[in-house]
Amino acid sequence: MSFSDTRLRVFHAVAKHLSFTRAAEELYLTQPAVTFQIRQLEEHFDTRLFDRHHNRITMTEAGVMVFNYTERILELYRETDKAINEMTGMTRGIVKLGASTTIGEYILPVILSSYHEQFPDVRIRMTVDNTRLIVRKLEDATIDLGMVEGPVQNKNIHIVPCVEDELIVALPINHPLSNMSEIPLSKLKEYPFVSREEGSGTREVIAEHLKKNGVNYDDLDMVLELGTTESVKAAIEGNVGFSIVSSLSIRKELRLKSLTAHRIKGVSMKRMLNFVYQKQKFRSKAVEEMLNFAKTKCKDMVVEV
Fold first, then answer.
1. Burial of 255: CB neighbours in 10 Å, binned 0-12, 13-18, 19+
2. Whole-model pTM?
3. pLDDT at res. 1
């Protein structure tokens, strides 16, 4: 009796995450469906592939062996797909894309709209999270390609620059500092500050720039920590405090004059937005086309303050 490609993929996902729940989420299946596929595979081999210990699972010796072969088999499937697609000239398939918050909200929607027009047979599954989690998802192969705004220190991850972004001070319209064209760094410690959450790429870059200029991030009067740039902007507009945000993220608010934007005097807060992917992982033609297409779009992107 042979076993199906579906069972291999389900087994691989469970073994990779050591979690039936996470495997079900990744494969868009129900947890009972995942359990059924694993049970069928174990019946085929007439041995257990996983040991269940209350709320955790581990692979048996047989499970480890099947996992090693499965990795090789699935890699051959991917290489076969790529070879046939390149031979027929078709770009199709699924691209699992991850983006950190600012990029996912303000850059990628424009890129993906244009990409879909050129490659209608490619489906995009996008995850938006902070930089740290996007890198983790690359490492465990949950996504194919990432685009992040924070620094990445990982020898297994390849980094490709996209576009330079400037971080600027965003203030409520009636803020005491809103009439200044450039704000002295020392003044920032005197007013309530709205921050992104820990793990945010924006937060890490701001902290790095402030430290270079003699100010610790914790010296700011942090009154709120929020998980998205949209919630930060809403807090600024509600007069909760000021923040430091991507210039890409406040174009609409500047146009509507619902907040003001300012540089810090004598401090250049710029960062590179980067594509990231695993160095060793096989990339399908659809992923390669996405990367090349997005790099071209990045060159055309104009960042205005």
1. exposed
2. 0.59
3. 36
